[in-house]
């Protein structure tokens, strides 16, 4: 059969195709991301009359219990939703050097206790992997290494034996003969990932794909891969710090937005089972520093929000926020000016969430505002106070969800007082080992902080 080839320009960020080169992607907005690729013309599907598709009535479909295997790493298991689901395709993305290969090699060592693991490296030599394994003190006969870049050859090898898990390190460096473009391009990644998807589904072996993230924080062709795979995990962290956060952004078999916390040590990644203690370990009771409880996946984590409010030396005050939503905090500053009558116009405002966490939920509002007021007035909050709640445009404090999980974590860590929305306080069923103060408005909050 003659395959018709077609040349198109494809955005390497999102996979948008165009017949001619364009500077800015109309879909994802990336600049200078178009590369000419050769793709196959789509073949017309002809239905084979022998196997007509047969729909099944919903009530006759039987539920199969999803089989899971443990990775031996508690934090990784939780992020996956309770272990690896057989036959699933899992993408792990992250900056180069963040520890993706280390994490999966460590996971391999526990999976290898009850089955063979195939670790395919398309970017490192076998001796480089061996060196890492020595450092991690892993030496198991059931971890099989393969240094190979051809997808077809990897799949052939994977089908030869019964593996408990397959790891592809990385999806950007393998290539398939069925796509004509260079490795790492959108059509190669899409085509290769589809083949691994097929492998996972037909053999019921879980397949991990490691993907590098570009400077802009996206896996090359992220949208292309994200809808294809079952689970997407991102490994985040600042290389200046030892701790790493593994976050699930999509999971067909578990909760999304679950996080696992690790620490990179001289002997590999260690689990941090009590992240609140880690994030609060250097918390000092100075002005501008406030402890809040944020929900990450299924659990609450206590962390510290710091604000620094200083008189501005320039005409245009500086606003620099790390770890919180820029628009949201600007809105809160406006509410503080108008409803709280705080004169912040001539002030530089800096905000930082300790621990490299990114808080996106509105429940952080009350803590952000408390931190700004505390720094502005130069009055520290008393020790052992945790603050959370949402703030509306008229300065009212609004109810939030999952108050009880947050309060339970706060009392477990030893917090003494919780400042929360009044409406949440009235609805509490449990009793907690800390004093709870309900606030109705931003002015009530300012009064508490200033007194
Ligand atoms: P690696 O897993 O190779 O990162 P990735 O696959 O995401 O590119 O890990 C790289 C970094 O981790 C490297 O800078 C060395 C460091 N590291 C440790 O600090 N301790 C260890 O035990 C190991 C194996 C690596
Ligand atoms: Mg690597």
Please explain how this structure is put together:
By secondary structure, the chain is α/β, with parallel strands linked by helices. It has twelve helices and 23 strands. The chain has three domains: 37 residues; 206 residues, Rossmann fold, CATH 3.40.50; 174 residues, 2-Layer Sandwich (Ribosomal Protein S5, domain 2). Helix content is 26%, strand content 28%. Helix 11 links the parallel strand 22 and strand 23. Helix 4 runs parallel beside helix 5. The structure holds thymidine-5'-diphosphate and magnesium ion. The site of thymidine-5'-diphosphate (TYD) has 15 residues, from helix 2 and helix 3.
Whole-number average pLDDT?
89
* Uncertain runs: none
- How big a fraction of the residues is strand? 25-35%
Instruction: Determine the CATH topology of the largest domain.
Output: Rossmann fold
| Helix share, percent | 25-40%
| Total number of domains | 3
> CATH first level of the largest domain: which class?
Alpha Beta
Question: What is the general shape?
Answer: globular
CATH architecture of the largest domain: 3-Layer(aba) Sandwich
Main pleated sheet: 9 strands, mixed
Number of strands: 23
Q: Strands across the major sheet, in which order?
A: 8-7-9-10-6-11-12-13-14
Q: CATH-wise, what's the superfamily of the largest domain?
A: P-loop containing nucleotide triphosphate hydrolases
